[in-house]
Every structure is written in C-alpha cells, then in structure tokens.
Design brief:
single chain, about 425 residues, alpha/beta, Dihydrodipicolinate Reductase, domain 2, Alpha-Beta Plaits, 10-stranded mixed sheet, 14 helices
Length: about 425
C-alpha cells in the first residue's frame, strides 16, 4: 500500500479553507480516484487564533510559511497566499529547491516569475501546477495542456475576470453608473476593498499572459500584455444605453492571436460584442474562455471564474494529478523549447470601432466631424445623434467599418482639435466572433 500523500497549505483565506474542506469531506473519493490517501500535515497563515469555517487544530501550525518547505514529511506545498513577490514567491522557490511539488493559485507570481520557477521545477524533477490561477473552477489550463495538446492554437480569448463581468453586467441591466455598481460588488464580496487589480485589467492581464505562453509555446511576457491593457473605469452608463440601441453588450475581454507569420498580439480591453454572440450571454461573475485550434475549430469553457468553491476545486484537482504521477512540463513543453515570442502591437490591429463624442449643439458640427473622418479615409457604418442631456452637449456615436488603428488615432487627434467637440468620451473595439 502506498504511503499517504502529505501536503502543507500556506494561506487559509476563503480558498485555503475551501481546500481544507474538500479534503476533509471528500477524502474517500480522492483516494478512490488516485489510489492514494491525501493528508494535510501542516498549515500556515497570518493568524493561528483567527476563527475559521473549518477545523485545523489537528494540523501542525507553522508561523513562517516559508518554513513549510523544510518539513521532511511534506510531499507538496500548496501556496494560497497570493502576490507577485514576498513570502509567496519565497515559499514556492524554496519548496522547489527542496524538491517539493508545488500547487498554487497565484496568477501574478506565475505570470511574472513562471519561467524561472518552471526551470527550477524541471531541474528538481517535481511538478509545479497552477490550474486555479486562471479562471477559477474552469479547467482552462488542462484544456490547453491535455484536451487540445494535438492542436496548433490560433487564438485564445474571453472573459477572464468575474468581478469586471459582474460590474459590467449589472451596469447594463440596471443603467447605474460604475461607482455605484462597484460599491455593490464590494458589499457582496465580488470585489476587493481595493479593486485596482480587477477593474484596471491587471488580473486579466496576468491570466492572459499565462494562457498565451501555454497556447503558443512562448516564454511568458507580462510586460508586453500590460502595455496593451486597459480597464473598465471609463465605461459609462450612457455607453451601455447607446450600445443597447446598437445591439451590443460591453465586456472586458482578454485576447491573444497568432498570425500565419508566427507573430502574437495580445490585449485586454473593454469591447463591444454583438448580443447574438455566444460571449454576450456570459453574464454575472461567470468567466468564459474560447480556444481556436487547427483541428478542433472553436472550444468554449464557461463557468465560475472565482470564489472559494470553484478555485479550491481546481487546487485539489492539481493535487490529485500529482498524486497520480503527473509531472508534466509547466508550460506544456520543456523550458528549453519555449520560444521567444514575436510580439506585435495589438492596439494597431485593424478592427471596427465605436466612438462616442460629446459635442456642442449648434449648426455645422456634423460637417466638421465628417471632414475629419474623410481626411484620413475612415468610413462610418452607423451614426446616431442623441440629446441625452437637457440643455447640455449632444452625444454623437459612430461605429466604423474595419480600419487601421493608426488611421483612427489620426482622426481622434483631429477631432480633439475641433472647437465644437467637447470631449471624446469612449473608444471601444467592436469584436466579431
């Protein structure tokens, strides 16, 4: 009979407690599906005395999480502290150096330090798994590494942050503004007290960085995607009203595409999606990840992208994979085979665009706008003009035919110079799937 597989857990927040609960409640099922018992032998968190929803008194308590890796009987360290650097990175690096398997839900750390950590894991012949780092309970990593392993992936895209999707969904349904819905999301626990990583697109950028590395076999490059990342703070209730009139929803999307020349463009930004598209129906705190492969066409995964249960489920699934002997390459191939990507500027890709202007309500305005557009060959698909504000500016909204972003930028600069244009309120891509 095999000896029990012993784990140490660092971080006992909602996800850490969820992992403990699953192991306590489903121990028999886990043994049946892996052929081996799993045991929690040690835990660490910020406070030993804090009241928790699970019983942990039977486990060894370690004050310094980094010391979990020094315990002789630990087979696998589970890092659920979070953060790009600090104690989380110290613990994972130390655990790999000690020849311990590692399971983490830390997207920021994997996106920033994943290559070096993967090299350490290979050198020590141990596993480093991170399914829970991307899309919570959705098996996005396993889909790429296992289900789609025989495919060349052309693109990966989707809704990668449940907090932003909840906020945008509620804004669209209720007509309320961003600040109001954000506060509600915080009150309900969907958003952190400091929501910066979520609403500014950084969380989605971390996840997209990891997915790009896996999809295209390239070294993760977080800085590249951060340069092409924008969040949802600038999306207004009026944008939702206008988008509804035009037949669209607004979603924060992460997308990465590899062209025939092997060049990769990746971007995180709010986009307009037609209401008939499958992606438009993914609302609330749900995530959706789409993959385009050369032999499977399009594969879609939809589910809870965050929360204690879904994320903990993904963590335990990774533990079970290691118990079965799965020590597959961290990014799908050995680190020596990861390519240096040929990155291209995603913001310059040709696309259709939504442009929302606030202009003075006086004769000649539309003529001036039309002149600015024609100067740079920008063609309008739809145009609406609405007086949404009593005794205030007029909203002029245009959707363009497919155009180069460089041409659009020239038009926007020209529009800014017009005395009759009060402000350029929004510019979003219109995505067709």
């Amino acid at each position: 009979m095999q000896t029990p597989f012993k784990i140490a857990i660092a971080g006992l927040g909602t996800v850490g407690q969820g992992v403990v609960e699953i192991i306590q409640k489903n121990a028999v099922l886990i043994e049946q599906r892996t052929g081996r018992k799993v045991e929690i032998c040690a835990v660490s968190s910020f406070s030993a005395s804090k009241k928790r929803a699970v019983e942990i008194s039977q486990y060894k308590w370690v004050d310094n999480a980094a010391q979990l890796a020094d315990l002789a009987d630990v087979d696998c360290v589970v890092e659920l502290i979070g953060g790009e650097n600090g104690i989380a990175h110290e613990l994972v690096s130390h655990a790999l150096d000690k020849g311990k398997h590692v399971v983490t839900a830390n997207k920021a750390m994997v996106a920033r330090h994943g290559l070096k950590l993967a090299q350490n894991a290979e050198f020590k012949n141990v596993a480093l798994k991170y399914e829970a780092a991307v899309a919570g309970g959705i098996p996005a990593i396993k889909t790429l590494m296992q289900g789609l392993a025989a495919n060349n992936i052309k693109s990966v895209f989707g809704i990668l942050n449940g907090t932003c999707n909840y906020i945008l969904s509620e804004m669209g349904l209720s007509g309320r503004g961003f600040d109001d819905v954000l506060k509600e999301a915080q009150d309900k626990g969907y958003a952190e007290a400091d929501p910066t990583f979520d609403v500014d697109g950084i969380d989605s950028a971390h996840k997209l960085c990891i997915l790009s590395a896996l999809a295209f076999g390239v070294k993760p490059d977080l800085d590249n995607v951060l340069e092409a990342t924008s969040g949802i703070r600038g999306v207004s209730a009026l944008d939702f009203k206008i988008a509804e009139e035009l037949g669209y929803k607004i979603k924060l999307l992460g997308s990465a595409h590899q062209n025939d020349a092997g060049e990769i463009a990746q971007m995180v930004a709010p986009c307009l999606v037609h209401k008939s598209a499958q992606l438009a129906s993914v609302d609330g705190s749900f995530n959706a990840v789409f993959f385009d492969g050369d032999f499977v066409d399009q594969v879609v995964n939809v589910g809870r992208g965050a929360g204690a249960g879904p994320t903990a489920s993904a963590v335990v699934a990774d533990i079970m994979d290691i118990m079965r002997g799965d020590e597959s390459a961290v990014f799908g191939v050995k680190t020596r085979d990861l390519q240096g990507a040929k990155w291209i500027d995603a913001s310059q890709n040709d696309d259709r665009f939504y442009i929302h202007l606030s202009v003075d309500d006086k004769p000649g305005v539309m003529a001036n706008i039309s002149s600015a557009l024609s100067t740079h060959g920008l063609s309008i698909d739809e145009l609406i003009q609405r007086h949404y504000h009593v005794d205030g500016p007029v909203s002029v909204v245009m959707t363009t035919h497919k155009t180069a972003r460089g041409s659009l930028d020239l038009v926007l600069e020209k529009l800014k110079s017009l005395e009759s244009v009060i402000s350029i309120d929004s510019v979003f891509r219109i995505i067709k799937f």
